[in-house]
Amino acid sequence: MDPINPGPEAYGQDDGDASRSSLFETGGGAAPRQRPPRESLTNDFGQSTPTAVRTARLVSGDFLLTVNPVDGSEIEPCPPTERPAAPEKRTAAERAEYERAVRPPVPPGPARTELPLLERQDDRERLVRLLARGRSVRLTGPAGSGRTALLDLVADDCSDLAPDGVVRLSGFHRTPEDLLHDLFGAVYRAPSQRPGHDELLRLVSEIGAVVVLDDIEFGGAGLDELLDATPECAFLFGATPEVPAPTADSGVEEVLLSGLERAGGVDILERAVGRVLTEEEANWAGDLWFESEGLPLRFVQAGALLRQRDQLKATTGAVDELGVFASDLSELPADATFDTEAAEEVPLPSLGEAAAPAPLLAARLSASARATLRFAVALGGEVPHQAHLPALVGDTHADAALGELAGCGLVSPVGSRYRLAAGVLQQLEAAGYADDIEPQALTAAQHYSWWAGHPSVTPDRVCAEADAVLAALAVVVPATVPPAEDEESLPVRLARTAAPAFAAGLHWSAWERTLRAGAEAARLSGEVGEQAYFHHELGILALCEGRLDDSQAELEASIGLRGALSDKRGTTAGRRALALVADRSGKVIPSLAAMAADEIPDARHEESISPAGGVTTPFPAVHSSLSDTVVTRRVPEHTPVARSGGGLVHMARRNLVAVSAGVLLTAVLGTVVGLGMTSHDNADNPADNVSVNPSVSEGTGDGGLGADPKQSQGSGDTGMTKTKPTDPGPDGTLGTSDDPTPPADTVSPSESPTPTKGSSGGGGSSHKPTSTPTKPTGSPSHSASSTPSHSASPSASESPSDSASPSESTPATTDSASGPTSDTPTVVTSSASEGVTPGTSTGTVI
């Protein structure tokens, strides 16, 4: 059941802002307060059935965010089908409902006497006039000067000045960006949507409202940023003198709020006690006015002291009726009478007690009220909501303590909640209320961790208690120690429970602070998995806010921690988010590339494309289909060749089909050209003048076309090199001898044979060619289609650029007796590692 309000309400089933108002069921006095049965609280604390995981889907700018409390939130570009409708402005009735929901609740208990706002009428009228002219005003006054009460009255007076009405906001612990989002949420109806920065500026620029912003904590450039973003709004700021002033160019009017006159202070005292002050009390009030500089809060607290003094001097009849003297003022009957003369026997509080009345006032309150004050001191001044007090204090009627504290002036409203009034926290700490801060904070943390994870508690309710939750984390996180076996650290559990609720409730400043506190707690407790979760969430948050460098750092830290734990699901979620960061930043993230290569073992081979021009690469599958043909691709000069294994670089599999087709085409073309050349008996056919084993490679450094060193240009010298052919190998292919000794039948003793790859390695039969190589009669053409062979050296007048293109392959045929002519040309290659100069092609078609 609901730990706050009984009923069948479940998470996510209430609509709009009604879920937010359900936490404050007594707000505005609209509905009577209902106290849950006593046994319901104990039953809720004893529940052992695990609850279902609650996720939420949000649209943040261009992203679709899925808040996942288990493995971490997931983020992706928002698909068009998931984009929500354009935000629409709330109607007047919806604004009124929203306004009631965000106001602080009315404290339970007897109705309090409403004190009038004295000596503020002139300031009130001046503020209304300035706002009616569209001017922004800053009301500056010390804490306790009645600034908040004056702002409420002015807001009521300006309800019909602007088309979007009056918007009340709290600037306590809020940044300019936070306030812009708060203003957007107050005026527009956009559930589960957080616009990006540019869209947010466009939307708030269309708001025309009177914005009453109390407890603002920034000025200067931050204030200018807020004003520039909302040109159609008139602001009424409430600030203390310690807050930086607006810039000179901001155009903000400054109104100073001073203290009350002596007569005004005495009037407040008389209204508080409900009678006329005695002469002694009037003199005491005068001393208090001088010491407090006329701050209204001091007179409210002094009036509470006088009321307690009157109650302490109850008539003897009231004591006899009770049987014993009431140790608790709350036990006195409502119709008890007091003797004014007897009351004079109790001395008035000293001036020091009146200047710091919190300890004396607390000592005369009920036990539940004092316990509430201890929790408030432990939480840094944050008073838990009245619905939480029964569970925290252990008294089902402890919610009435808030009314006692408000009646004494010990608490004051801040936004939608209450805090200790100005100076009360320091006074209580000096009185010893801070001696048990850690136990009180641990109790509060345990309660909030249970409550925030309850299925019936909506994110909006958790966001309303954000400051109390954050205050509890601030106390318990530094004291975190590694938990015992099979136990969970309380600070980590609280952060894990509250953080997803803050994210789903769009309270992202609280989300970030909770994540950082949780990461620190997980580090101290040694829970690596939890630490990885918090870093992942911080990376997601930074990505949503456009802080790409921060997002990359957080996500990489999370992935590293989850990789150490072998958390595959969490690692996958982190890698997806990191890939989105890389896409948005437009840069290559080395860690992401390394992780992708590790995840796909063949990724490196798929991406290892050969350099331009190619390298010598064997393809066994092609060998078997094309009579062991080996294809070579030319390596351009000065191109670095990457090698692996035996010096060969294997191309990607996707290139295999294309290369195989090229090999097959080369074989077919070679056969066709060879048959065409041998079908004619023309004496001028260049094919008849080709030696058995000519070389088509370019010489080394001499500008010639021979693969071997060029001979001296004597008479009849053609620059050709004869090599000794070998017998056909087992597969029918021909090769040359790898013997480095020059054979006896070479043309010149000074020439050395060029070793070629693919030789049989044995000494095959040696026979001289049947035809002597001669020079072609015509001018040589450097086209592969017209010149079957470049066996002759170019003339002296030719430049080296006139030689054949290195990338062209020249088929050649022979009708000699050196071996049978095969229909399939065989290309014999020589690897660059075997002495071939880069930039040459060593293939010879036989």
> What is the SS-derived class?
alpha/beta
- Let me know the average pLDDT: 73
Characterize the biggest β-sheet.
Answer: 5 strands, parallel
What is the count of β-strands? Answer: 16
Strand order of the largest sheet: 6-9-10-5-11
Low-pLDDT stretches: 5-51, 315-320, 324-340, 601-654, 686-846
Number of helices: 31
Oligomer: single chain
Instruction: Measure the end-to-end span.
Output: 92 Å
Which range does the strand content fall in? 5-15%
Gyration radius, in Å:
46 Å
Helix content: 25-40%
Quick rundown:
This protein has 846 residues and is of the alpha/beta class.
Explain this structure to me?
The chain has 846 residues and is an alpha/beta fold. Among the domains are: 121-256, Rossmann fold; 260-352, no CATH class; 612-846, no CATH class. Helices cover 40% and strands 7% of the residues. It is built from 31 helices and 16 strands. Helix 16 (367-378) crosses helix 20 and helix 25 runs parallel beside helix 27. The longest helix is centred in the last third of the chain and has 23 residues, at 656-678. Residues 5-51, 315-320, 324-340, 601-654 and 686-846 have low confidence and may be disordered.
Q: What are the salient characteristics of this protein?
A:
846 residues; alpha/beta; Rossmann fold; 5-stranded parallel sheet; 4-stranded mixed sheet; 31 helices; 40% helix; disordered C terminus
